[in-house]
Design brief:
heterodimer, A: alpha+beta, Phosphatidylethanolamine-binding Protein, six-stranded mixed β-sheet, three-stranded antiparallel β-sheet, 9 strands, globular, B: mainly alpha, PEBP_euk (chain A), acetylation (chain A), PEBP (chain A), Protein MOTHER of FT and TFL1 (chain A)
């Protein structure tokens, strides 16, 4: 069990953002053709649009997806931890976020300084959440732990994270 | 009499020539700074129309642009709160307009923090604050979208696009400062 979350411990995802959990669901994340595996490097220019996310589970289950950056504005001084990029709730099991309710629209990674971790966290809901959830007042200083606690989401059932840093000027234009 | 006139003419010509030369060299800073953004023409015209730009460095130009954004955001917040929501009888629309006004006020606050960040040369903070300012108008638009049958007013859409463009320019200039 511990082996399957090791990259998350090593990457301090568990600790900085999440508590130790046992993965009980599968989630596959793709930016274009690139499959996201823990700690892989993604160019922000390839992440302008939301990733394709497929989750396991039964259609009568509902899931919440959160994408968050604990390294805002910079990993050495993350005073805006966390910066939340995307929140989708009420995603039916076995489907993808387009079938859920987008509480907070996707914002692409734009790391100004340093290498940031971008974490996608999947929770299994106990009940439909859609009408109860308001958009957070600000993307800064978000707490995935508190959000999960507030809506009784429990521990994550799946998580994956990638790294991104600012691309050199010549590439961005 | 004639010599003093000629002398006056020469002084005037020299003065305007030197002003032209220094104005031209700073026009180059404005142009090269704006080249790093995605809105070159808009960036150049906005900066050139500010009296402080001839003597501003890149950081100063960023601050000028942030000021333009603050004006936009504050005027939109006022427009929504004062003019629009006061004249509306529909309770749902009134609430949306008031919430939207709040979001544009938050955008202006974020931009004010950006100025402080620029003063402190904390460009990573500045980048995040500009991102926040750019995001608040989206929240307003989504509030309209959530209400069935409620149209997103053209005037607000125009102001949203304007603020996004201004923030885009600031982000572009900040990218250059961070490098």
């Amino acid at each position: 069990m511990a082996a399957s979350v090791d990259p998350l411990v090593v990457g301090r995802v568990i600790g900085d953002v999440l508590d130790m959990f046992i993965p009980t669901a599968n989630m596959s994340v793709y930016f274009g053709p690139k499959h996201i595996t823990n700690g892989c490097e993604i160019k922000p220019s390839t992440a302008v649009n939301p990733p394709k996310v497929n989750i396991s589970g039964h259609s009568d289950e509902l899931y919440t997806l959160v994408m968050t950056d604990p390294d805002a504005p910079s990993p050495s001084e993350p005073n805006m931890r966390e910066w939340v990029h995307w929140i989708v709730v009420d995603i039916p099991g076995g489907t993808n976020p387009s079938r859920g309710k987008e509480i907070l629209p996707y914002m692409e990674p734009r790391p100004p300084v340093g290498i940031h971790r971008y974490i996608l966290v999947l929770f299994r809901q106990n009940s439909p959440v859609g009408l109860m959830v308001q958009q957070p007042p600000s993307r800064a200083n978000f707490s995935t732990r508190m959000f999960a606690g507030h809506f009784d989401l429990g521990l994550p059932v799946a998580t994956v994270y990638f790294n991104a840093q600012k691309e050199p000027a010549s590439r961005r234009r | 009499m004639a010599t003093s006139l000629v002398f006056l003419l020469l002084v005037t010509l020299t003065f305007s020539a030197s002003t032209l030369i220094s104005a031209k060299s700073n026009a180059t800073i404005i142009e090269s700074t704006c080249k790093t953004t995605n809105y070159y023409k808009f960036c150049v015209s906005a900066l050139k129309s500010d009296p402080r730009s001839p003597t501003a460095d890149t950081k100063g130009l960023a601050a000028i642009m942030v000021g333009v954004g603050m004006t936009n955001a504050t005027s939109t917040a006022t427009y929504l709160a004062g003019n629009l929501s006061a004249t509306v009888n529909d309770a749902v629309l009134k609430k949306v307009l008031q919430d939207c006004s709040e979001k544009y006020t938050l955008a202006a606050d974020s931009l004010r923090l950006t100025i402080q960040d620029l003063d402190n040369e904390a460009y990573d903070y500045a980048s995040m604050h500009v991102l926040a300012a750019q995001d608040y108008p989206n929240v307003c638009r989504n509030m309209f979208r959530r209400v069935k049958g409620l149209a997103y007013p053209v005037e607000i859409r125009r102001r949203e696009a304007s603020l996004r463009r201004i923030c885009g320019v600031v982000s572009g200039i900040l990218d250059r400062l961070v490098e």
